[in-house]
Structure formats: C-alpha cells, structure tokens
C-alpha cells in the first residue's frame, strides 16, 4: 500500500510540474495572443468599413496561412537549424537534442523546459513541412 502512495505521489508531482510550466509558459503565450488579437481588431476596423472581406473568402486556407513566420523561425532557432534544412536533418537534430535533454537523461527543471521547447519546435516544423 505504501508503494501505491509513493507512485501516486510521483504522478501528482509530475502533473503539478506540467501545470506550473503551462502556467508560466502557456500563460504568456495566451496573453500575447490576446494582445495581438486586440491589436488586430483595432487595426482592421478601417478595413471593415471599406468592406474588404476578400481574405475571408479563401476556401483553401491551410495551417501555413495562419502560422506566423516568426513561430517557424523560432522553431528552427530552437533546434539550431536553418530554414533550408531537410526533413531528415530536422529529425536527426531532434533526436540529438532529445537524447541530451530528455528527462530520463537529464533530471533538471531546465532540461524539462528545454525538452518542451524542442518538442514544440519539432511539431511546428513538421506541420510546416508536411502541409
């Protein structure tokens, strides 16, 4: 029974750490996104008064249309690659960094945060390449 409590304690500790990271890093992203949305709303008021809705009629919108280039640039920077990197190079670099920063290899909180950045960057680049 004591073993069960130890396991449950570790699971709760892991969930707590994830929630803290989301609160720290996710909260700033949400605040920035809300700020950008507010600024875009104010800047687009003049467009709305002229009836410029041509951008809303695109039926073939994809993920690339909505993703900001700065996110993609940041993703390549996190992995230490240039934008001309092939899918094979991206995967190779991801594996290299994952081996270095994976929580099983490196137990520090900084390594966990870095691994989260690496995973997010890898996902962003894969979505860009595959779409």
Helix content: over 70%
Structural Rg: 20 Å
Distance between the termini: 50 Å
User: How would you state the average pLDDT, rounded?
Assistant: 77
Largest sheet entry: none
Gross morphology is elongated
What is the annotated CATH architecture of the domain at 64-131?
Orthogonal Bundle
What would you say this structure looks like, in words?
It is a single chain. With 131 residues, this protein is mostly helical. The chain has a domain at 64-131: DnaJ domain (Helix Hairpins), CATH 1.10.287.110. Helix content is 76%, strand content 0%. The protein contains 6 helices and no strands. The longest helix has 42 residues, at 2-43. It is elongated and about 55 Å long. The model is unreliable at 44-54 (pLDDT under 50). InterPro entries: DjlA_DnaK_co-chaperone, DnaJ_domain, J_dom_sf. Keywords: Membrane, Transmembrane, Transmembrane helix.
């Amino acid at each position: 029974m004591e073993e069960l409590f130890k396991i449950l304690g570790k699971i709760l500790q892991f969930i707590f750490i994830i929630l803290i990271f989301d609160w720290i890093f996710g909260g700033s992203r949400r605040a920035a996104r809300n700020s950008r949305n507010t600024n875009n709303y104010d800047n687009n008021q003049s467009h709305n008064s002229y009836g410029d809705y041509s951008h809303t009629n695109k039926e073939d919108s994809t993920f690339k249309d909505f993703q900001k280039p700065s996110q993609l640039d940041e993703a390549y920077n996190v992995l230490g690659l240039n934008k001309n990197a092939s899918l094979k190079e991206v995967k190779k670099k991801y594996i290299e960094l994952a081996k270095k920063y994976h929580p099983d290899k490196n137990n520090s909180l900084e390594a966990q945060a870095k691994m989260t950045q690496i995973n997010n960057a890898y996902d962003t680049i894969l979505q860009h390449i595959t779409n």
